[in-house]
Amino acid sequence: MADVARRAGVSTGTVSRALRDLPGVGDETRELIKATARELHYVISPEASQLSRGSTGRVAIVVPRLHNWFYAEMVSALERVLRDGGLDVLVYQLDGEAKRLHFFDALPSRRKVDAVVLVALPVLTVEAERLDFMGAQVLVAGGRIRDFPYVGVDDHAIGVAAVEHLAALGHRRIGMLRTSDTEGAYWSSDAERSRGFHDALAAAGLPDDEAYVVTEPYAVDAGARAMRRLLALPEPPTAVFAYSDELAIGALRELQVAGIDVPGRMSLIGVDGHPTADLFGITTFDQHVGDQGRLTGQLVLDALARGDGAVLPANRVDFDLVDRGSTGPAPAGTGAGRGKRGVSAQPRGTRRARTRRTARGGA
Amino acid sequence: MADVARRAGVSTGTVSRALRDLPGVGDETRELIKATARELHYVISPEASQLSRGSTGRVAIVVPRLHNWFYAEMVSALERVLRDGGLDVLVYQLDGEAKRLHFFDALPSRRKVDAVVLVALPVLTVEAERLDFMGAQVLVAGGRIRDFPYVGVDDHAIGVAAVEHLAALGHRRIGMLRTSDTEGAYWSSDAERSRGFHDALAAAGLPDDEAYVVTEPYAVDAGARAMRRLLALPEPPTAVFAYSDELAIGALRELQVAGIDVPGRMSLIGVDGHPTADLFGITTFDQHVGDQGRLTGQLVLDALARGDGAVLPANRVDFDLVDRGSTGPAPAGTGAGRGKRGVSAQPRGTRRARTRRTARGGA
DNA sequence: CGATCAGACGCAAACGTTTGCGTTAATACG
DNA sequence: CGTATTAACGCAAACGTTTGCGTCTGATCG
Questions:
Q1: Please, how many CA atoms are within 13 Å of residue A182, restricted to the half-sphere of its CB?
Q2: Residues of B299-336 as b/e, b for ≥16 C-beta within 10 angstroms?
Q3: pLDDT digits over A219-258, tens only?
Q4: Which residues have a Cβ under 8 Å from the Cβ of B332 and sit 6 or more positions away?
Q5: Which of residues 38-77 of B touch strand C (CB under 7 A)?
Q6: All domains of chain B, ordered by start, with CATH?
Q7: Which of A89, A91, A151, A233 pairs as cysteine with A315 (C-beta 3.0–4.6 A)?
Q8: pLDDT at B103 over 90
């Protein structure tokens, strides 16, 4: 910057003001300075700038892992709006308890960023306490942690809606597929979606057999393994609610391999809005992950712009039932014989009922 | 830091040295300082530190988009080794030509990072020129750009291997599925994989019908649409080489819907090592994306540690043929009738021939 | 025409580290 | 015991901005 100032015959203060379009600089001087800067390929040093003004112009996005549709989609949406807002995005992957502990212990992002967005990150209570030392805005996307401002869907309502949808089709034996990637830490979406599931079963007077809820460690074939366990039961359910579309895809694959018609002999419904679930015609609750990410990004931008840490504490995003035909009426007999071999009944041109559900308040 | 120094009764210089384990500090003094720092929850200001020493401790990862298995996997692997190396990771998504131009024009990462990793980013020649102004190490992962050091597989060899594999099974009508997400910019992997495909067809004396190579704009159902176009041909191929596993998955779905047995009536082979392709039993060339990411990260670490910009210019990673049973002998008759309805022949416990292929030199 | 005012610009003190150099004290050696 | 050597530590100048305040110039108004 000193170079530019010398060459333009002004002081560095004027250069600083001119380049940032602040008042107090004459028009021709400003132009001269800008031209000189361009000419010298001058780029401001962010370090010096931030050291002086106090803010970093960066925000951290913390996720359990990236190679996973939900997180990648969320980060992708977040990154776009944050960058459009002139902020740089730092990504932290906290896979495994060890890394998570280290992160919360060393607080590496303190003073490195202006805000931290935790994306669907299961966190232990002790870890959550440490977040207060972060020294930055903390937001949560895709679920809830402590009392931090968050963006997410009403997971309890999703669990309820799933059971209601299946019960309305006449199903009485309804199972649920879960995956345990929380490593013992509490995660609101999983807990509340399950609670909604059980609550709705009770409300509808349907059996709530604990064998119908299977949990598999996270992996690409978790859904397949979970479905296999359900199918091995003496009296398997006739409909299954999968915690995520990824699980539903694995489950569908297993059903294809086992030659069980969907939805003829087994109804399947997931959650997310995963594009591959669309490809395979799986009915799902679209939770508009992109919208969640964009909204979170906007909240960050607003909070940082206003300076004060005032953020709307609860931001619920709508979810939609997207009926692609993987759910259907319950089979007539209870112990009906093996149905015809085949795959999903709705090949292409899937109909999208888009039963819009308005978001409900906090649980 | 001034606080710590005052409280410990030493100068800031000593604090700086003590905390970074530099020599010139007495053992008890060092311990005292460290204890004091802990007590005050002191964290170093990266801005000031970097302003003083010159390096940023950050590296930028530039990708076309994130919500995509290949990129997410690559970034994920990169992030891990870079963070383990003590570096922070900045992610830039350059979807769309506009953003790409802006990035290369404004050079936002100049002086913001010590190194830039371009992940499979198609780039125009003019844009590549501007990279010289980056003022940072530039590396390329998953392909090649100009003369920058890169990490990647031998894409030409993959194209050749695919055709050889299918030809060995007796196929004579071999198609290829491509996706165009390069927006007109050149991308080495696509170009070389295609060239390998055509070269191998010629070498094997097989027909190279241009109708057998279909390109669809990037989307989740690109593979399905591409396969549909092939099936609509008067004489469709009996085997198909998909540029990526994502395309192969879409193609498989289309074949399921159309009731065409795989590999009975149609063989299918992809590239990547996508976990979902594993789930669906799709034979593929695993290009070890994680390894590519890790290797790239290590190269960055090494280059930064050594200070000089000397990086091995070419770093080839092996690829493996993972046979999961979606390829089989060519059907006997040319115009055989509709085969039996069903899905992939190898349900679970997929065999993994893992025909290891040593990487070959440059194209 | 003198006083007032506003806009344009320079000055210099922060911001929080790092690091070369100088000083001090302690130890070792003759 | 005096001197050379070494380790421990303080001092202060960078690093490249931002920004409050002061000064100067030219214009406006009564």
A1: 18
A2: bbbebbeeeeeebeeebbbebbbbbbbbbbebbeeeee
A3: 999 999 999 999 999 999 999 999 999 999 999 999 999 9
A4: none
A5: 42, 44-45, 47-49, 51-53
A6: 2-44 (1.10.260.40), 56-153+291-318 (3.40.50.2300), 155-287+320-357 (3.40.50.2300)
A7: A151
A8: no
